[in-house]
Write a structure and sequence with these properties.
The complex is a heterodimer of chains A (about 325) and B (about 120). Chain A is built from 13 helices and no strands. In chain A, helix 6 runs antiparallel to helix 11.
Chain lengths: ~325, ~120
């Protein structure tokens, strides 16, 4: 099921390329095929991979689904045809973005200029949502561990990670290039597909790859957890302070034109900085999420069967072990 | 010409698959997968509406006059990343539910809740 959802992610990414949404495809490929597959796998090792035989009665649900689907299809009859240039959506603000953004923002990639400048406030809100989700995961899954457990976990990790020698060496060579690529995507977002969101995910993927092959504790030594948590907040802060600086310079919140003497140059500075903020937040939140989930799993493996407070579920926990 | 609407039908079918999983499955992880499928169908709806016949990706370059609509791209781009963050939050909740109840099946959780509230009133698990 998880592999299927990974394939599904990759497939929808290629869908998006076919429909000329390269920026979106980029994001979906890294998120849908990479991070979300990984997250699902980790969760399934945590909750056990067996489900009970179906006891639900599908008739009612099917009926609801079919009626809703039929109504929705009926609703589409009034919609504009696929690919039609006269559709209302293409006549509203889109021509303005396409025709004037070169003069106003000076960036070839219209998606970036809309994302960071015209709809900067929106993106700010979304960055805050990502940050909040990261905080939520941390609150739900973070664990305080005693030092003796730490040693035990290290021992398990060392034994586990002995065997992947070739992978580890290949990854050691690859990781700098992944970082480099992430930075390229981060700072080239003005001209080609890319930007803070994609770069953040790629950056996080490199760190997660490292953590998977070299063990969580090694990765924890390399990447300071509290530093990452601070960074997640710093990203949002950088974004917000750009808005405040533009206010102090006499413009509106997140109006970058006042950041430099030349409005277009100001836009460039503003977009670069807020994309950096987005990138930092996204990367650190993804890393936080992965470390929280993986840390849980590690804890589960060490403490074995007596993880539950009440211990009334011997069958399920043995299933967990099988799943490993 | 009614076939020109096929993109919406693909979306509706995907959406209904997701919807069915959400309402018919008792397993919380499967519900989250269903929600993800639902979410992707909305992404496809937006992106397919942005597509313009003969247009290219919205990156301005010499000699190209037709572009697809950049606005839905922006909306969906951020929605994908927000989506993975919220999915992670949902999965984290499922993990905690598993630890507290020993199950991620909806009806078992309900059973345990009912039993607990009838035996030890006010005391939380």
């Amino acid at each position: 099921m998880v592999m299927l959802s990974g394939i599904y992610g990759l497939l929808s990414a290629s869908f998006f390329v076919a429909m000329d949404a390269v920026d979106v495809a980029f994001t979906e490929a890294s998120v849908g095929a990479g991070i979300s597959t990984l997250l699902m796998l980790t969760t399934i090792t945590l909750v056990g991979r067996y489900e009970h035989a179906a006891r639900h009665k599908p008739t009612l649900a099917l009926a609801v689904v079919f009626v809703t689907g039929a109504l929705l299809i009926y609703g589409t009859l009034d919609m504009p045809y696929f690919g039609s240039a006269e559709a209302p959506i293409n006549l509203h603000v889109a021509p303005h973005y396409l025709n004037d953004s070169m003069q106003e923002i000076g960036m070839p990639n219209v998606v970036t200029s809309v994302l960071a400048s015209y709809r900067g406030f929106d993106t700010f809100g979304e960055t805050a949502v990502i940050f909040t989700a990261g905080v939520g995961v941390l609150a739900l899954l973070s664990i305080v561990r005693r030092p003796e457990e730490e040693a035990e976990i290290d021992a398990i990790n060392d034994s586990m990670h002995q065997q992947h020698l070739i992978l580890r060496i290949v990854i050691k060579i690859l990781i700098p290039f992944i970082f480099l690529f992430a930075l390229y995507v981060q700072f080239h977002g003005d001209y080609g597909p890319g930007g803070g969101f994609q770069a953040g995910v790629i950056f996080a993927a490199a760190i997660i790859l490292y953590a998977m092959l070299f063990g969580l504790s090694t990765a924890r030594r390399v990447i300071n957890q509290s530093l990452i948590q601070v960074l997640a907040a710093v990203g949002v802060l950088v974004y917000g302070s750009v808005g405040l600086v533009s206010m102090l310079n006499g413009g509106n919140f997140l109006d970058y034109s006042v950041l430099a003497s030349d409005p277009v140059a100001g836009q460039h500075v503003g977009i670069l900085v807020i994309e950096l903020g987005v990138g930092i937040t996204v990367a650190s939140v993804m890393v936080i999420i992965f470390f929280s989930f993986a840390g849980r799993r590690e804890n589960r493996r060490v403490s074995g069967n007596d993880v539950e407070h009440d211990g009334n579920r011997p069958t399920n926990s043995s299933e967990n072990k099988d799943a490993r | 010409m009614i076939l020109g609407l096929y993109n919406y039908w693909v979306v509706v079918v995907l959406m209904m698959i997701g919807f069915y999983i959400v309402i018919a499955q008792g397993n919380l992880i499967k519900k989250i997968v269903g929600l993800n499928i639902f979410q992707t169908s909305v992404f496809i709806l937006y992106i397919s509406m942005a597509k313009v016949e003969g247009g290219t990706a919205p990156i301005l370059a010499e000699g190209i006059s037709q572009f697809s609509n950049p606005l839905p791209h922006v909306l969906i781009l951020t929605a994908i990343v927000v989506g993975i963050a919220t999915t992670a939050l949902g999965l984290a909740l499922a993990v905690r539910i598993k630890e507290a109840y020993g199950s991620i099946e909806e009806d078992e959780i309900q059973d345990r809740d009912n039993k607990e509230s009838s035996t030890m009133k006010g005391k939380k698990c």
